[in-house]
Amino acid sequence: MNIDNNHIWHPYNSLPSKTPILNVASTNKCTITLKDGRELVDGMSSWWSAIHGYNNQYLDDALKKQIDEMPHIMFGGLTHDPSIKLTKKLLKILPKGLEKVFYADSGSVSIEVALKTALLYQKARNKPNKKRFLSVFGGYHGDTLGAMSICDPINSMHSLYREYLPQNIFAKMPSINNDSDDIEDLEEKFQNYHEEIAGFIIEPIVQGAGGMRIYRPQYLKRARELCDKYDVLFIVDEIATGFGHTGKMFAVEHASVIPDIMTIGKALSGGYMSFGAMVCTGKISDTISSNPPYALMHGPTFMGNALACAVSLASIELLLNSDWQAKVKNIEAHLSNELGELKSLNIVKDVRVIGCIGVVELTTSEFANTLQSEVVKQGVWLRPFGKLLYTIPAYIISQEELYSITNTMKSVIKKVDSERN
Q1: Residues at the annotated binding site for substrate?
Q2: Is residue 260 annotated as part of the catalytic site, yes or no?
């Protein structure tokens, strides 16, 4: 591991790492096998992406077939059947009206494309003053520069870059406890700044890395109304929530609203390849394409990668042909029943569950490294984030493996709580 320790920079980490980096030898379904022979039940599904688990034969076969035909071809001036078939499939499951698809390298890049699309749309409408974005505190949209500018500007990991980023507008974070002042503040921001706002962007129903906060659908409904009233594009980031994580195919379905622009990623490819997409309405693409600047000026080298398209198509087919709703509902019930008892502990601030997302928020982040090492000792892979110990398992996880995850979460948190008190 000397090469890794001395030369490989891992995400959100120093070099060399101040925390252990585990060497993975292989994966299978919901099991991670380390090089030293230890096996861990995966409670993270590789940052929300591997919804079918690992080494799925159907996805493997799709990749193998595609690599023999064409692993990649530039998308400028060329196209291919995998992208056409994937788009046809997406149009059947996307919210009605979202019908124009731009394929990107990753979720973060799809956010960049969404922001650029919104800006070009306003330019094409001869509204160049609409060049800022309204977002909410507690949000997270990725690690690239444009994406960072709409993440929480104070408490997120991106606050280090604040002086360098475009200065956007932020409303109060959506309330977990159904308070009304969050919507009042949002309305005030629209009223005061709508002439300079190109788009309002938010993670629907669940704020991810910004705090794993679950909020009410009514907030989204009101946001949609305000966007319409003040002529602002409604942009939703479904990179983490899409493809079933909240119990709906897309989280906006909880509020029965349709955005103008949506970004997708993570589970799009079933966790096999880095891939994302920006989808929008025909009105947006027609406006840009019929007026200056006439084109969406973005062109990733690996845009529409044939392998990524092929495996994404297979992943969606696999999802639609499975009883994924029942599986997610079962995971939700289990997480609610098992993690709920932790609410009474002194170090636990809150327990939140929706779909296959189970979150235990602690009162402090000082235990993150301890919790990380303890869950591994008990044969589970979880990745604490600040004050949060959470799980988002694959939909195929067995009941026994689910118990391994929740029993481990309860055990390590109770141990820390008893040691502190």
Answers
A1: 47, 140, 266, 299, 383
A2: no
